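Hi,

Apologies if this is the wrong queue. I'm a grad student, and the batch job for Thiol methyltransferase from Exophiala xenobiotica produced an output file that my downstream script rejects. I'm not sure whether the problem is my script or the file. Here is the sequence I used:
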Amino acid sequence: MRNQVRLNTRRATSYCRGVLRSHQPLTSSQPATSRLLRSQLLVEPQARLKIQNHRLSTVVTPFTRPAIRMSIPLGGRTDLPVEEARAELKRHFSDYQGPKYADGWADLWAKGEFLPWDRGNPSPALADTLINHGDVIGHAMIEEDGQPRRKRALVPGCGRGVDVLLLQSFGYDVIGLEYAPDALKACEEYQKEHAGDYPVRDEKIGKGSARFLQGDFYMDDWLEKTGFGKDAKFDLIYDYTFFCAMQLPMRPAWAKRMAELLRPSPQANLICLEFPTSKPAMAGGPPFASPPKAYFEHLSHPGEEVKYDAEGNVKMNPLAPSSPGALERVGHWQPADTHKVGKDAEGKVQDWIAVWRHR
Ligand SMILES: C[S@@+](CC[C@H](N)C(=O)[O-])C[C@H]1O[C@@H](n2cnc3c(N)ncnc32)[C@H](O)[C@@H]1O
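Support response: The file is valid. Your script probably expects a header line. Output copied below for reference.
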């Protein structure tokens, strides 16, 4: 294990070399990237040396909202305050309980007027993870049977596909999975217009591929369309606002499916951006309250029911041994930056990143 960490650290350092290659000075007009730099200064001594010697290569475009010209407008009614948008979502889904639930999402995408989760730019927390936490997650290339290959990534419930394109720019071969046919149209349109906003992150690795597939996360039929085989498994799965989009009775199946789709390898990672962490459970959803302990209990016991208290909070049982097939949490931190909705009124990040692996 220690050897593997050392190896990963070396890889992360050489990867940082790619990220830190230009001589562009930092300015206060680069807030997101500056924050990434600050976190780099805090967490990575080797990166600190590189920063002092070379200064930071700032690739700002993916973190700024590009001009949007799309038939499904970004976010629809973006004027709504968060609480009102959440109340409206809850009302909408009261008509789509149980087996009809995923159709509730498809209906919102088909109307295209009310997509309050749709930020139109990739997650700063994912970017921070890819840039600053290579010591945990490695990078986009892997060796298999003595040959290098790109890691295969999955973004289930990818929405407009922004995080798919971000992972592609870091060199991953990425599948964006969506149940809603109109979300896929939005992905394809966005990809056509904005591929240039996601420049290659490391010339040595280059860009991977990005493909958008229609399918239900819980079913197998989309797997053969991935091009990775009908038993496809992924080296990286990224969950953002997918767990919290699930009704509570769906969570055991969510955890079981994640464990099934993640490659059983010490180099394969499920990355969960934990959100919303401070919403009261009684408020319902979507998004449903998703503090770290909710992910922890479900992924430690995939497919099993988890207990909730009278207020709707997940009950932790730290003494219960993990179940067979459980994933193990190998990293847990607060990202240097995240979307505004994941911060409190003072701008303090409330989200967490958790990295999970097969044991
Ligand atoms: C809250 S949205 C998040 C979208 C995206 N991750 C983002 O951050 O913009 C949840 C997405 O999951 C999709 N979805 C819901 N259930 C699904 C399922 N069973 N399989 C695939 N996608 C699903 C919905 O269509 C919706 O676009």
